[in-house]
Design a protein that fits this description.
mainly alpha; MetI-like fold; 2 domains; 15 helices; flat; ABC_transporter_permease; membrane; MetI-like_sf; transmembrane; transmembrane helix
Amino acid sequence: MTGQAKAGRPNQLLRNLNSKIASIPMILTALVIFLGGTVWTVVYSFTNSKLLPRLSFVGIDQYRRLWAAPRWIISIENLAVYGVLSLIFSLVIGFVLAALMDQKIRFENTFRTIFLYPFALSFIVTGLVWQWILNPEFGVQSVIRSLGWTTFTFDPLYTPEIVIYGILIAALWQGTGLVMCLMLAGLRGIDEDIWKASRVDGIPMWKTYLFIVIPMMRPVFITTLVIIASGIVKVYDLVVAQTSGGPGIASEVPAKYVYDYMFQAQNLGQGFAASTMMLITVAIIIIPWAYLEFGGPKRA
């Protein structure tokens, strides 16, 4: 038996050899570029690098300055509001749309294309479109006032207290279609017998969705959450296209903070420190997902 086991090991190593050889460039890219770049960024976040990176270590001074900067605090607050609301509304609206589409409605392909089309646009285009729509001079406010409601006011992009909600509207318009498609794929994977059994037992449809269907779609929800969360952390171009961080610094986000300090203020150390904080945020999202999907106890 021992000889057979030893003979079987080389066979295991040689299995799918072509695939393993083809994956070597991707593995090297991940190790050298992504992992190496990550380590490089973290190391230089503890330096006093300005225009060019240099190994002049200053401890955690860059992180002290980072968390003492009002602009960074505002960007974190905006990201928290934007992130929580984006997660909630994207999942709820996407699932409701998917549930409606799953009823075998007429022209399903047409509606699915309409809902998914905004996702094909870049965030720059989406931001510019919604900048025009939300402009008080010729957007929604102007149209409604022209209909007779002369006191109507709706200018979120020009009001510091609610500007992040104007950005949220544009983000939901673009991203909800993708969530709908993911949820629809999950719903189409539910066995038809489950629906028949719930109807026979007289279970209301909302209870079937809440207590049977949604728990069965756990992998779809986890994957969707990761996709949405990763997009939330790195949101940048939508903000630049709509407000450029304004009014003032009211709509600042961490990614824009990093870009401005690295390429405009020429303060690489501060930009690296902010990038490291963003990396920690992504790790907080990815590690629990990886554990639930690959390392946690397997469910029947």
